[in-house]
Amino acid sequence: MKTIAIAGTFDSKGTEYLYVKKLIESFGVKTFTIHIGVFEPEFKPDVSNCEVAQAVDADINEIVRKKDRASATEILSKGIAVLLPQLYEQGKFDGILSFGGSGGTALITPAMRKLPIGVPKVMVSTMASGNTEQYVGTSDIVMIPSIVDVAGLNVISTKIFDNAVFAILGMVNYTHDIIAEKKPLVAATMFGVTTPCVTFAREYLEARGYEVLIFHATGTGGKAMENLIESGFIQGVLDLTTTEWCDEIVGGVLSAGPNRLEVAGKKGIPQVVSVGALDMVNFGAIDTVPTEFLNRNLYKHNPSVTLMRTSKDENLALGKVIAEKLNQATGATVLMLPLLGVSGIDMENQPFYGPAEDQVLFDTLRGAIDKNVVDLEEFNLHINDKLFAETAAQKLIDLMK
Question: Which domains does the chain carry?
Fold first, then answer.
């Protein structure tokens, strides 16, 4: 029989959680309840808040005495993040459901992110509309807007709770085994302006027995890829689109953070890297572009996305940081430079054609790369040329072999 974990603040929202618990059990599915509130729960849970606190060597009674909500939330969040993966490994549950406002969402989602990808995770939240990156991160949490606050049972909240229950029941009950030949996994990065390149490379690799996972280089995509590399899923990396560094350095909206380009190198995973889309910084709609950039070369990609051409100074900084990251590699690493352009709009008669800016990038990389660590190769090709893409794919195959 399948089991669904229900984790939440059973002290302040006990009525709501008890409603969900009974509904799940009415379908013949077991529940496994975890109390992560500070005070006494309205019903007896399978895992108490005392056990959650103990997971990080804290005392729930001391937490109560302090009467510090922020401190209590932080400790219990850390405790459940430690305990939840252990409970899953022990076979206590098959999926997890929770709901709450901003506090409850911030309390449980870090623990959900610790569970393996594919484990059903449903979060009903008042924070489910808008930017949910801080809650979802690189995991597969399903967030459902609560519409009304999670405060009592009413005609709206019960309908939303019902739908959330039906969703997770379907996830845990309707599964199938994927029967497929086990192939070496390759991670690749792509942006709209490098799609031809990565598509050619993917087709080349797939024809030779590799499975390719493509990550959209939107900040979250780069983080998700490196999370999988860190977890040991990936045998080779085709990091042709390193554009997230533009947003990290200049202040765009699609940064993957300051540790991008580190994981594969540190783990010794074979990697072929290029400079795809380093000609652009990403902003939202045109009216969101910072005023200091309004006199720059801007390109309205669509109503919601505005691109800004990187300058010579920015390309100098990009070259330095990419070299710095790649020079840390402990495994086979190739850096490939497409000398005729780094994106679909960095070519003659296109809005970001900038041979002078690209030259600064290339010269910086030539001077900063440690040739004892990184194999630097240059091609008189555009990044989207089929020959460039297939050469990159074959180089990765050679490194992996």
Answer: 3-173 (3.40.50.12020), 185-400 (3.40.50.12030)
